Amino acid sequence: MWRGDRRTAGAAGGTLRRRPGPAKGALRGATRNLMTEQHKIVSPLDPESLRRIADALDRLAPPARAAVDLHGADAFIWHPGRGLIAVPRVNRVDMSLLKGIDRMRDILIENTERFARGLPANNALLWGARGMGKSSLVKAAHAGVNEGLGRKAGILKLVEIHREDIESLPDLMTVLRPQPWRFIVFCDDLSFDADDTSYKSLKAVLEGGIEGRPENVILYATSNRRHLMSRDMMENERSTAINPGETVEEKVSLSDRFGLWLGFHRCSQDEFLAMVEGYVAYFKVPIEADALRREALEWATTRGSRSGRVAWQFVQDLAGRRGVRLSDK
Predict the structure, then answer these.
(1) How confident is the model over 246-285, as pLDDT tens digits?
(2) Do 309 and 131 contact (CB within 8 A), yes or no?
(3) Which residues of 299-312 are buried (b: 16+ CB within 10 A; e: fewer)?
(4) How far apart are CA 297 and CA 303, in angstroms?
(5) Bridging pattern class, strands 260-264 and 124-128
(6) How far apart are CA 63 and CA 156, in angstroms?
(7) What is the pTM of this model?
(8) Measured in whole angstroms, how far is the alpha carbon of residue 102 from the centre of its chain?
(9) What is the predicted pLDDT for the residue at 153?
(10) 247 contact partners, CB below 8 Å, separation of at least 6
(11) Cα–Cα distance between 229 and 43 in angstroms, integer?
């Protein structure tokens, strides 16, 4: 019947159009609204909105790394996001106060002097008992070599990198490589946990990477562990791995890449007393020899250990009770 109507309309010379249903009308209306919204989105923003967006992006962006200026200091701390931060005054003790570690002291100083002169030298791992002067020796060796060689070898600079920033070590090498100075990169209390893979960055820098260690950089690290990991961790690797030997060797090989292994062992009673007496004489703390010996041994007994750190803690307590300030000469 509709066809008949269409023929009738055609015969009459008219045109018959179907009126859109409710669904099509709604669709057309939604399309017009969407086009209007799109026009609003792409329309130019006012200057104030643009400024607010730019400020927000600046706040989200990491701060720009400051230009490296190594002229003003001999010691720096490496921060991955901020670069090298100068240390105006290094917390160090005089070399003469380090007792009971004569052999390790002589080896490290000789290695450091060779490096400062531009001669071949090894990376060094100082491992062993707590509080026996490992980190103190590194800082004292840096100061002693600078003082002894002076301008004849050029200024030797000390750069400390924190354990948690080891993964950024390749970035630090990129910063130091083109510099005219020579650098000791120092990491204190270096060790790794079972699920920690950041040691691979250190392995590549020490030996094995394409670039390798820059000629003007040497690495000194201290650790209470000879292989930079706990024995429990190594035994667990052997018991759970399919190829236990390969798994353990991969991690043990890290310490092998340090050419010098300097072991620090617990001191004897005589060495402990020599440490205490050295501090007391250096800072001029007034006390009789018998009283000093008695009080120092009592302090070590209450602490349950003897070490350079325990000796220094005793001297701080003694100086405080005697009203003596502990400051460098």
Answers:
(1) 555 555 666 777 889 999 988 999 999 999 999 999 999 9
(2) yes
(3) bbeeeeebbbbbbb
(4) 10
(5) parallel
(6) 29
(7) 0.71
(8) 29
(9) 55
(10) 237, 238, 241
(11) 60
CA–CA separation, 254 and 199 (whole Å): 8
Residue 76 backbone dihedrals phi, psi, to 5 degrees: -145, 160
Task: In whole angstroms, give the CA distance from residue 117 to residue 115.
Answer: 5
- Sort 99 into a burial class: Cβ within 10 Å, 0-12 / 13-18 / 19+: buried
Q: Are 182 and 138 in contact (CB under 8 A)?
A: no
User: Which residues, 6 or more positions from 37, have their beta carbon under 8 angstroms from its beta carbon?
Assistant: none
The residue type at 216: N
Spatial CA neighbour of 186 closest among 71, 92, 65: 92
d(CA 272, CA 313): 12
CA 217/CA 60 separation, integer angstroms: 34
Strand ranges across the sheet with 124-128: 83-86, 75-79, 156-161, 182-187, 217-223, 124-128, 260-264
pLDDT at 30: 59
Q: Which of 166, 159, 174, 149 is nearest to 218 (CA)?
A: 159
Burial class (CB in 10 A: 0-12, 13-18, 19+), 277: middle
For residues 78, 70, 214 and 212, what is the CA-based torsion angle, rounded to 10 degrees? 20
> Which regions of the chain are under pLDDT 70?
1-45, 58-59, 61-68, 150-154, 193-201, 204, 207-210, 226-254, 328-329
Distances in Å between the alpha carbon of 18 and those of 1, 6, 21, 27, 199? Answer: 15, 11, 9, 16, 76
Q: What six digits make up the tokens of 128?
A: 């062993």
Residue among 175, 113, 101 at smallest CA distance from 142 = 113
Structure tokens at 19: 């009126």
- Determine how many CB atoms are found less than 10 A away from the CB of residue 74: 16
Calpha distance 187→175 (Å, rounded): 17
